[in-house]
Specification:
- The protein is an alpha/beta fold.
- It has a single domain (about 5-229), classed as Carbamate kinase.
- It has eight helices and nine strands.
- The protein has helices spanning about 15, 25-35, 50-60, 70-90, 125-135, 170-175, 190-200, 210-215, and strands spanning about 5-10, 40-45, 110-115, 140-145, 150, 160-165, 165, 200-205, 225-229.
- The strands form two sheets. The chain has a seven-stranded mixed β-sheet with strand order 3-2-1-4-8-9-7, sandwiched between helices. It has a two-stranded antiparallel sheet with strand order 5-6.
Length: about 230
């Protein structure tokens, strides 16, 4: 299969479970991915944790789980729960197990592979880049509740401006080049450095409406930011 037909999707938990499970989003996402599979595309989807992840970590912290590795494991299993749900939703179109080690992403003819969190210290963005490296995919779509990359944090700076195309070098000057626990950036710096090395393209976009993703997959204009070499 041509590498440009392979797409990794980092699916933010904020879309799967913003508060409760978003049935309408999941139904629409399933319909879109299945339609794109029929055109010859192959998807590797890694899920985030969403509210379930944060709530479990908050409770663990409140009850004395102070070390970051323990909290990371709580979050990892939240992502795996979401991945297990998504894999079941796709049924026979998806590989029969969720991938929990991105370096062991299988080479299979089945058109959908779903993965969850791997090990402490690695974000879902980093896992997505590792999956791209393993499968030969050249494109990653980062779906969340964020519309664009901005030249500075829009929550702190009202004059922040959206960026529609940016190089990896420029992106790393915006977000920094180190991963920090709890970091809130459009794409994890560790993942960004590896994506730059591999020459990947990453599209950052809001998963709602899903027409956004459809337009990107079909080569049409979409609302979001493209990061590339």
């Amino acid at each position: 299969m041509p590498d440009n037909q392979k797409i990794v999707i980092s699916l933010g938990g904020s879309l799967i479970i913003p508060d409760e499970l978003d049935l309408d989003f999941l139904r629409s996402f399933k319909t879109l991915i299945e339609a794109e599979v029929k055109t010859g595309k192959f998807f590797i989807i890694i899920t985030g944790g969403g509210k379930v992840c944060r709530r479990y970590q908050e409770v663990a912290r409140e009850l004395g789980a102070g070390d970051s590795e323990s909290l990371d494991w709580v979050g990892i299993y939240a992502t795996r729960l979401n991945a297990t749900l998504l894999r079941a939703v796709f049924g026979a179109d998806a590989y029969g197990e969720i991938v929990v080690d991105p370096t062991q992403t299988p080479s299979v003819a089945i058109p959908i592979i779903v993965g969850g969190g791997g090990v402490p210290g690695h974000s879902s963005d980093f896992a997505a880049v590792l999956m791209a490296e393993k499968t030969g995919a050249k494109r990653i779509v980062n779906l969340s509740n964020v519309d664009y990359v901005y030249d500075k944090d829009p929550r702190k700076f009202p004059d922040a401006e959206k960026v529609e195309r940016v190089s990896w070098t420029e992106f790393l000057t915006i977000v920094g080049d180190e991963h920090r626990p709890g970091i809130n950036v459009p794409f994890d710096p560790m993942a960004a450095k590896l994506a730059k090395k591999l020459g990947l393209e990453v599209a950052i976009m809001n998963g709602k409406p899903l027409l956004n993703l459809q337009n990107y997959l079909e080569g049409k204009a979409f609302k979001g930011t493209v990061i590339s070499s």
